């Protein structure tokens, strides 16, 4: 479904667009290359199921890549140098494989699809357009999770640098239409945005087909909760998790929803987007 006035960036193997997870957070109080390497290694560990040895090796590879670009944790001015990308990562791993490192050969195998798609070797597209849609549907789930987490983190980092907003109107609204595509990490970008994003002007709307894909932090810190009709087997769990009466959840029919605004819960009717677009 295209949206009027949108700028769409499709990410796939043949796309000219990309996301660079290795962009350094410029916050002097919580950024730098070392912390960025730890964050990226953690996301890769979860998305690609890296073992402890592979995670440690990945951290060392990333540190080497940053150093070769003359980016050092101890030198704030160096954080503005052009960051490495996954071409640098691939080259460093290849060098270690050529030197006879068996663990590097195993890590290279785990990252084979990541290198093949190439989306993390291209510069991140501009986020300055008024309405942007990022299409990840043609990526494997693991790569989609890495890309989505990287974009969400970069948005949060950039809004922190802008400082707290004076009013209540957000600068940016981030919509994620399938929460299961995000990595399941404690302290993930979604958890950080839902907890602290509003004071920096970054609002988050997160949708999912199942409550299992929403973290406790997301549910606990969200201001508005909307529940659509669910399968009978899910009624009890959804009602408990979102604090609705079980019979009210069970009585939902298509194009209706239960909405909780703070302590108030209401049943509302839904007008589909395609009908609104015809008006």
UniProtKB/TrEMBL annotation:
Residue ranges of coiled coil: none
InterPro entries named among the record's database cross-references: P-loop_NTPase (IPR027417), T4SS_component (IPR051162)
SUPFAM superfamilies noted in UniProt: P-loop containing nucleoside triphosphate hydrolases
Keywords for this protein: Cell cycle, Cell division
GO BP term, pick one: cell division
Protein origin, superkingdom: Bacteria
Protein name per UniProt: Cell division protein FtsK
Organism of derivation: Merismopedia glauca CCAP 1448/3
